[in-house]
Fold this sequence. Notes:
Elements: E1 9-10, H1 11-18, H2 22-30, E2 32-36, E3 39-43, E4 60-61, H3 63-77, H4 82-96, H5 105-123, H6 131-141, H7 144-148, E5 150-153, E6 156-160, E7 169-170, E8 181-182, H8 189-198, H9 203-210, H10 214-228
Antiparallel strand pairs: 1-4, 2-3, 5-6, 7-8
Amino acid sequence: MDIIGTGFYPLNQAARLVGAEPRALRRWLRGYSRKYHGGQVRSEPLWTTQLQDEELPEDVIGFRDLLEARMVTAFVRHGVDLKVIRATIDAAAQHFDIAYPLTQQKFLTDGKRIFLQAMEQATGEPKMIDVLRKQFVFSDIIKPSLYAGIEYGKGGAVRWFPLGKRKTIVLDPALQFGTPVIANAGIPTDTIYASYLAEGRDKEMVARVFDITPKLVSDAVEFEERLAA
């Protein structure tokens, strides 16, 4: 696999980018074992990650994995059980005949039915029990705003602008292994933020150092501080 076009995110960095707990993200993507009635029960990963079979010095995931994990984080924040999330991913992947189905634009429009069926399958509840509440849960999770910053190509998502309509910062697996950078300058946001702190939080000075506008410095600072929150 060509890692240059895949993206390269250590799990701790990936967790910060999607707003997940590092331990939880590792369990979702690597699986885990737990004791059950004196034995061990294995919970498999939610999906096979892009770089799983690569011999790499650390535990990393790719760009598609990152965006899919972002969607899983949204489900978990709304209290959806991992059994339901797993069933939703499996059903959507089969329905769309594509890997990483949660970040497909089709899921925004067709995902509610898949989600409700997956919930019924995973929980065993009859279809009509509390169906309105479940529909509202789905609508509250899956919003156009979740997809607004994602750009798509023929094969799916190709880049992510995490500030939405402000396309000043981008994660593009074809640029610097997908690390967040200033879109038109290619400067990593963490580099700008480190300079901002070193220069006594003087945005004008940092803008001169990197030959960019103070507004771009502000966006990089906002993005990095949002990650640290």
